[in-house]
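Much of what follows relies on a compact textual record of a protein's fold. An example makes this concrete, so a full record is given next.
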Amino acid sequence: MSTDDWKRQAAEQALTYVEDGMKLGLGTGSTAAKFVDLLGAKVKSGLKVVCVPTSEATRAQAAALGIPLTTLDETPELDLTIDGADEIDSDLRLIKGGGGALLREKIVAVASDRVVIIADNSKRVENLGLFPLPLEVVPFGLGATQNLIVKLAADCGCEGEVKLRVGTDGKPFVTDNGNHILDCAFGLIDDPEALDDALKLVPGVVESGLFIGIADVGIIAGPKGVEVLSGIETDFEEDF
């Protein structure tokens, strides 16, 4: 089986958590897109849900499939969000933002009662940080913001290139919110919580790609089958 097949397996498993009448958050990225496709088929067969997409790309995909959409202004509390990750560890800590949607993804996730992360086994790690950590930053004062990020990250034992993300057109990547992304190649992050706290002190940082204490369940598919990771303090699995 291919990585694409494993992504679909994880998405299929996540679909079993969806119940009629739910208010859902829809993630962004290649694995989340598999889930949206499967959800669209269920909606076509009669499943009743209403969904908040985490990006304009996901919004377009869901709308094309006939999935009913809403906003967090109209529906500020969600039952469940299904999203992917660039990295996930055994404590359900994540790095997200490879697709540039980390701010909306975090807003939607925190507005949800429960969050399920789906991924293929290449995203499963012992320690976060091999994937460069994305930071969404405002364009104003970018150089000063970058310098302070480097300084505070170093205080947390994290050093490496902090690079402005560039789009396929050679220009700075622009998020759906009109911001830029800095990708931080820190390598292994010994203390993700401390780094996340430090990055929040930088005024120009809108949000970091560290998702800590947010995910309830991780569904990882690979050559050995589907692995389900559950948070120690969550009763999520018991409810289904």
Summary: The chain has two domains: 3-125+212-231, 133-206. The longest helix spans residues 30-44. The two ends are 28 Å apart (CA to CA).
